[in-house]
User: What shape does this take?
Amino acid sequence: MLKLSEILVSRKDIETFPALEAAVQDVARSGERFFRMDVKPPFSDTPENWEDRLEAAFSGLIR
Assistant: This one.
């Protein structure tokens, strides 16, 4: 199971929410099947609907 905190810790280059969405998509494409949002992204541009957007990124609903 992929945790959001693992992405944030391992990818120090991520500085914006759109970059985080792209990273989530990359991990999903690598074959990860489950995704858990265990922390809120710490970026100033994190939208109110961040959970829905990251779930969509992981599910492949956005490109």
User: Anything to note?
Assistant: The helical segments are 4-10, 17-29, 50-59. Residues 2-59 form one domain.
